[in-house]
Design brief:
- There is one protein chain.
- The chain is mainly alpha-helical.
- 48% of the residues lie in helices and 7% in strands.
- A three-stranded antiparallel sheet has the order 1-2-3. The chain has a three-stranded antiparallel sheet with strand order 4-5-6.
- A hairpin with a 4-residue loop joins strand 4 (57-60) and strand 5 (65-68).
- The longest helix is centred in the last third of the chain and has 21 residues, at 378-398.
- Bound molecules: s-citryldethia Coenzyme A.
- Residues 45, 229, 232, 263-264, 267, 292, 295, 300-308, 354, 356, 359-361 line the site of s-citryldethia Coenzyme A.
Length: 426
């Protein structure tokens, strides 16, 4: 099917093209619908609307499939690294060995922070959530790197995307430590991305810290599994802001803030808080499940459900495996509770009928907690993972000669025209 005719009252209104994706998914091309018929479409939450065509990530929500540039994420988790996936998402191909080495050196070589950014972070109240701190600092990064603009940096200067990939973990670690022990641990050129971040987060001032290999492996996998996910809310925010040709730093700052919401990236923190509440209530998972089913109760089972996956989120399955590998032998009340909660929910008609399964956030916080991260840092870790996806999606949009400023319409349901009423007559 490559065209569809839209009819009303036995009259052909318009014929629209059908766009077919690589995996056979199809969309009505309605770019000229209003001009031809005066009609627009109304789709709150965009549940039925594709805003972009993209070559970066393929998701099949019914079959629980997720691929970055065609590669299944389970293969990437097993064989690749987070930085290699950053390269893949942006460039579209896996790097050659020497190109990967160059890229890794480029990131390591741009990790230092300008004094002013550090001072700025310290000036933000310690009680501020690290996500808001990060967004605030990223929004002004452009003033420290004038002319770094666009996707290719000026002669000799790093591109904005390199600056962000290199410095966000350093800013993230400092956003935490500046509000706790005030110890700044600089990035090291002899450590990989995940081990460097663990070192900046947990090393004492006098050094002597070596991140456990199991923690490095788990963090590397988690970052990679968060790297991109199509047109999710925070990526859509980055594309929306970027479509006005605002600075990339501004678009990424918007993405960080969009991600912080509890229904999106903020869920990983709330999952652990929910599991701790269940434990405090004597492990009573059933009462939490009943609350989640009660339509009059706004409570949702955090880490469950997804706009696209109506099957098991493939990332959740992989993260659950990592959690078991990391924690099972020690026994971990949070993990045991999570596994029990999942079993009970997936046996309950309410969740089965609605296709509500664990999502990427359900097990990730358990691993972060076990590594030693405070729960306020969980969504920051999501942002570190998602940064390459935001950057790749932004670049795809900016490089698209047909991309336009994004400006949805609305259907007006307010008052008809009426005249102003002077205050003395009200
Ligand atoms: C992420 O888009 C992405 O790709 C996001 C993400 C990414 O990688 O970027 O995957 C990351 O954000 C994962 C989601 C993290 N959020 C949570 O875990 C919060 C809890 N989940 C829900 O709030 C909800 O499932 C959403 C927000 C994730 C999805 O919301 P939708 O698509 O709008 O689903 P919906 O509200 O239309 O749900 C349909 C039905 C409703 O019931 P009925 O009105 O049909 O009776 O399912 C119910 C919902 O009430 N439902 C839930 C539920 N999720 C959906 N009921 C209880 N608990 C839940 N978790």
């Amino acid at each position: 099917m490559d065209r569809v005719t839209i009819r009303a009252q036995d009259e052909d209104l318009v014929e629209v093209p059908v766009i077919t994706g690589t995996e056979g998914e199809q969309a009505l091309g309605i770019a000229h619908l209003r001009k031809a018929t005066g009609l627009v479409t109304l789709d709150p939450g965009y549940g039925n609307t594709a805003e972009a065509s993209s070559a970066i990530t393929f998701i099949n929500g019914e079959d629980g499939i997720l691929r970055y540039r065609g590669y299944p994420v389970d293969q990437l988790v097993e064989h690749s690294s987070f930085l290699e996936v950053c390269f893949l998402l942006d460039q579209g191909e896996l790097p050659s060995p020497c190109r990967l080495t160059e890229f890794e050196q480029e990131i390591r070589g741009n990790a230092s922070l300008p004094e002013g950014l550090m001072t700025l972070l310290e000036a933000i109240p310690a009680s501020t959530h690290p996500m808001q701190k990060l967004a605030a600092v990223v929004a002004v990064m452009g003033s420290y790197y004038p002319g770094a603009g666009g996707s290719a940096g000026p002669e000799g200067g790093p591109a904005e995307s390199t600056i962000l990939l290199a410095k966000l973990p350093v800013l993230a670690a400092w956003s935490y430590r500046s509000g706790t022990d005030g110890v700044y641990i600089a990035p090291r050129s002899d450590l990989g991305y995940a081990s460097n971040f663990l070192n900046m987060m947990f090393a004492p001032q006098d050094g002597g810290f070596e991140a456990p290999e199991a923690h490095i492996r788990a963090l590397e996998a988690l970052l990679l599994l968060h790297a991109d996910h199509g047109q999710n809310l925070s990526t859509s925010a980055v594309r929306l802001v970027g479509s006005s040709r605002a600075e990339l730093f501004s678009a990424i700052s918007a993405g960080i803030l969009a991600l912080s919401g509890p229904l999106h990236g903020g869920a990983n923190q709330r999952v652990v808080e929910m599991l701790e509440e269940i434990l405090a209530a004597g492990g009573d998972t059933r009462s939490f499940i009943e609350r989640a089913k009660d339509r009059s109760d706004p409570f949702r089972l955090m880490g469950f459900g997804h706009r696209v996956y109506k099957n098991y989120d493939p990332r959740a399955e992989l993260i659950k495996q990592h959690a078991k590998d990391l924690l099972r032998e020690r026994g971990n009340p949070l993990l045991e509770t999570a596994l029990r909660l999942e079993t009970e929910a997936l046996e309950d008609e309410f969740f089965i009928q609605r296709g509500i399964y664990p999502n990427v956030d359900f097990y990730s916080g358990i691993i972060y907690r076990a590594i030693g991260f405070p729960s306020k840092m969980f969504t920051v870790l999501f942002a570190l993972g998602r940064l390459p996806g935001w950057l790749a999606q932004w670049r795809e949009m900016i490089d698209d000669p047909y991309s336009r400023i994004k400006r949805p319409r609305s259907i007006y349901l307010g008052f008809p025209r009426r005249d102003f009423v002077p205050i003395e007559e009200r």
